[in-house]
Amino acid sequence: MKKELEQFLARPGKKVSLAHFPTSYGGEKDKEEGVKELEEIKTALSSFQETLYAADSRSVLILFQAMDAAGKDSAIQHVMSGLNPQGCQVYSFKTPTSEEYDHDFLWRHYKALPERGRIGIHNRSHYENVLVCKVHPEYILNEKIPGYTQVKKIDKDFWQRRYESIRNFEKHLTDNGTVIVKIFLHVSKEEQKQRFLDRINDPAKNWKFSSGDIKERALWKDYMKAYEEAIEATSTDAAPWYILPADKKWYSRLAISHILAETFKKMDLKFPVLAKAEADQLDLIKQQLLEQK
């Protein structure tokens, strides 16, 4: 599946048009095969996580971005369910608090980074600052950035500098041992509509629906343009974007699991090897335990 996934990579330095990326895809598998394969890969991911934790030298940061109802929450739930919670942390970023607005836009995201040996999962991320904020530039005024007191002053140069800040932020992380996996779940407008209707029609899912979702849906073209520009500006060799088809949830989950498995393999982590003195000490303790009654 490694080669299959390459078609979903946003190539660094290349123009990004979401229209050229499918929203519905299943490869040569059917849903039953995909679900079974996902369960098998989750076992491997659990083993990789144990090595990551034991090596305590690298960390993994997984970023999920998508339109509403694209399946971020369920993807995290299904793909990550085999991981040890002690070595994994999930953050879901909402509207910034007053304290967060009193710092630069990356501050709250930096605070949520995973420690060495751990996996961090960000449900929405620092990219909201060039996505929802680009569609709603009035939100930028809440940051009280000197010189930006009116929406009309938030120009193209402003966004280019923000993209640069993000690239520098991610380069700093990768230079210091964090592997970044960036995933955009690419759902079609038609599928989103159906999922909204499912949430409305099912009382058990009503809580998932917000009237604000419809207002944002009306800005679909603006969001697609914002995603294209953000992905194009920030997909790098060290931290590329995957634009995964999300109309079939089973496939997007399977694709994510393969991406993570391949990421861990490339990290080539090993369990720590004890120094000879420590190994000898263990042998001595083992002998003492065996001799005890």
Automatic annotation (TrEMBL):
It comes from the Bacteria. InterPro entries: P-loop_NTPase (IPR027417), Polyphosphate_phosphotransfera (IPR016898), PPK2-rel_1 (IPR022300), PPK2-related (IPR022488). The keyword Transferase applies. Signal peptide: none annotated. GO terms for molecular function: polyphosphate kinase activity. Pfam families: PPK2. Residues 29-270 form the Polyphosphate kinase-2-related domain. Gene3D superfamilies: P-loop containing nucleotide triphosphate hydrolases. GO terms for biological process: polyphosphate metabolic process. Keywords: Kinase, Transferase. The keyword Kinase applies. Belongs to the polyphosphate kinase 2 (PPK2) family. Class I subfamily. NCBIfam families: PPK2_rel_1 (TIGR03709). This is Polyphosphate kinase-2-related domain-containing protein. It comes from Pedobacter heparinus (strain ATCC 13125 / DSM 2366 / CIP 104194 / JCM 7457 / NBRC 12017 / NCIMB 9290 / NRRL B-14731 / HIM 762-3).
